[in-house]
Design brief:
Strand order of the largest sheet: 3-2-1-4-5-7-6
Radius of gyration: 22 Å
CATH topology of the largest domain: Rossmann fold
Distance between the termini: 39 Å
Number of strands: 7
Largest sheet: 7 strands, mixed
Strand content: 15-25%
CATH class of the largest domain: Alpha Beta
Helix content: 40-55%
Amino acid sequence: MKPDYKNWMPKGMVLSAVVATAVCLILFVVFGLSGLVSGKLKTVLFVIFLVGTVIGFVVSLWMALMYRAFSYNGKRQMSKQIIEGIADFVKLKDGEKGLDVGCGSGALTIACAKRNPGASFIGIDRWGKEYASFNLPLCESNAKAEGVSNVSFEKGDANKLNFPDESFDAVVSNYVYHNIPSTNRQEILLETLRVLKKGGTFAIHDIFSKHKYGDMSTFVQKLRDMGYEKVEFIDTTDGKFISKFESVWMELSGSALLVGKK
């Protein structure tokens, strides 16, 4: 049995875009090119369905390229590269515990657990309808396929974690918080760090663009002022995880790693 980590660009979204484009193309031919309608109405429909077809084609192509880049089984394997890169920052002793916020298909949770066989890891996610292919049974199935037993998964909310203060020796996350509707995502980061033990480590990867997060340099300094021993903000679009070109066309500009020790 092989693990199935799915794709960060869901196949259903790609197919929906393709179908919508095909519908626009058919309507363009029927109403814009044929003699079924005439006059101003034909001109209006011609323009509407032509624009819809062009936009749909561009979006469908972009989604297809994203799907290909993020595939665990493809040549680029960007998802795997990012997951493995984040997991490299997590080093726990036997008996210690780690938390993965927004675990999706369990990829990062399992990668951390494989590197730290004496520790235990919990992956939480809300598993919303936006990513319907990601769910609890999938995570458990992937852990079994990888032969990893030091993991568990449960439903949870990143806005309000169901754990006491200082519960974990490490907290990790990947491309999660930018998807959460919020006027202050820095507060969500603080909620994640709330459950980190004194001396614990964190590695959080996301699209830390200013319009999503505000000034992250100020936030980094805030953590230092709060007593965090070490805080680094690492750009991952310089070839570490993805290239500058990929970050632009894949709309991942601002991707970075927030790592450190409490």
